[in-house]
Amino acid sequence: MMRRLAQLLLVFISGWTFTVIQEAFGQEVPRLEAVTAMRQAAEFYRGEVASHGGYVYHYSVDLSQRWGEGTATADQIWVQPPGTPTVGMAYLRAHEATGDRYYLDAASEAAVAIVHGQLRSGGWTNAIDFNPDSDQTAEYRNGRGRGKNNSSLDDGQTQSALSFLIQCDKALEFRDPRVHEAAMVGLDALLAAQYPNGGFPQVWTRPVTTHPVIAANYPDYDWRTEGRVKEYWNAYTLNDNVTGYVAVTLIDAHRVYSDVRYLESLRKLGDFLLLAQMPEPQPGWCQQYSFQMKPIWARKFEPPAVSGDESQEVIGTLLLISQTLSDAKYLEPVPRAMAWLKRSLLPSGQLARYYELQSNRPLYMNRRGDKYELTYEDSDLPDHYGWKTDNTLNQLDLRYNVVRAGDATTDVASARELELRVNSIITALDDRSRWIDHYDGTRLVGQPKFKLGEPYLSSQTFSNNLTRLAEFVVASGSSK
Predict the structure, then answer these.
(1) How remote is the C-alpha of 387 from its chain's centroid?
(2) CA 473, CA 97: separation in Å to the nearest integer?
(3) Is the peptide bond prior to 82 cis by the omega test (within 30 degrees of 0)?
(4) What is the pLDDT of residues 271-302, one digit of tens each?
(5) Burial class (CB in 10 A: 0-12, 13-18, 19+), 100
(6) What is the pLDDT of residues 381-397, one digit of tens each?
(7) Count of other CB atoms within 10 angstroms of residue 19
(8) 413 by DSSP, 3-state: which?
(9) Can you state the angle between helices 260-276 and 242-257, rounded to 10 degrees?
(10) Strand 127-129 relative to strand 151-152: parallel, antiparallel, unpaired?
(11) Letter string b/e over residues 369-402, b meaning 16 or more CB atoms within 10 A of that residue's CB
């Protein structure tokens, strides 16, 4: 009983009204425990972990070390997921679930930190440095940085920043001009970065140039030695789910601002993905395309090839676009692509990242010093890259059938199912309100140099757990 009273006191000092307290008292203990755990975990992460309102990927448990893509200083925060926008979105979900202003304030701090690092070109790079004397700053729109002005769509950098700012702008009821202006500037820049055929570059500094609108085709030269593009980041890019992240951002923008330009851009993006599907015998998608719509080299370990990973991502994006626009034309490429993926599975059930053009043989790289060599063997692969990927074909099949049938339902877990999940999340919170991970050898984003079994804090884990708890609070509240 004393524990329950203590939980209610915490809810009271968090700003809840007496009516809400009464309602919470009438709920099962797990719901109240979830609300309490959320607030305790958020107070630790916001109060002890945040720097300048933002976050990196990983932290030592004593917070003496920080990692993004490599070691980070106390003045650096990360934009690329699972950095600051990822944590900020979790705060917004917590605010929606509880109405507690504390989470909105935490999200606002993260949004202002993101605004600080917006580039003059309108987007973001992977990190923001608040030290104006650092050589890691970029050409920030606020004039407090120097260096490059390359807005990046790689790994969802600009897209995640924009989606977070859009959602935060809405939660703030459009009353913070810093957040609203940054969202508008960023969205205008994103639209200006879209090529006439609907594709996007990996990086932009200025509005893109005009090129012919043609369908994807195989190279008519020796792709192993010719056709290399020095500035591949200016080319049409699908690598690391560029178009999937863009689609989500455009949908978010339309839902919040009701501007038809964002749906028009989404439709153009869908049309590009139709054009980018390779002809038989490999009706999948590639990582990068030239302006002649031929697969091209990117980095020296990223050859022209049809990609298992990007093809799965594109199928998911087409399903999202088709459902959003209520247009079945974006489903038309899916059966051919799925059939190709299924016949391209490796003996392990995985997909190769690369399949050789036309022969469809799984294609890999060996590394000797700084040099890479193409190979069909997978026994000596460099460990810095994902040469194979898990297949998600069953999930894609299910989604395809749902979208084709016009079923708008989603797979939402019941309150009871969520309760089973959150029990372990609440139990895992330690006496300092931390969720501590232990390195198990799995490749982590940013590739920090942890020892096996070493404890660390993860922004991804914090965000996932806070979001799951928020979902449980909503579901259990609606089931009373």
Answers:
(1) 20
(2) 6
(3) yes
(4) 999 999 999 999 999 999 999 999 999 999 99
(5) buried
(6) 998 899 999 999 999 99
(7) 8
(8) coil
(9) 160
(10) unpaired
(11) eeebeeeeeeeebeeeeebbbebbbeebeebbeb
Quote the CA–CA distance of 125 and 137 in Å, as a whole number.
10
The residue length of the chain stands at: 480
pLDDT of residue 111 exceeding 80: yes
- Number of CB atoms found within 10 A of residue 246's CB: 24
Q: For tokens 């260096």, what's the residue?
A: 147
Structure tokens, 366: 């060996």
Residue 81 has, within 13 A of its CA and on its CB side, a CA count of: 22
More confident residue, 140 or 9: 140
pLDDT > 50? residue 21 = no
Q: What's the rounded Cα separation, in Å, for the pair 36 and 40?
A: 6
Cα–Cα distances in Å, from 229 out to 65, 170, 287, 371, 435? 38, 41, 13, 18, 44
Mean pLDDT of 41-64: 98
Contact 179, 172 (CB under 8 A): yes
Mean pLDDT across 92-114 = 98
Nearest-angstrom CA–CA distance, 34 and 453: 28
Residue 140 pairs in a beta bridge with 119
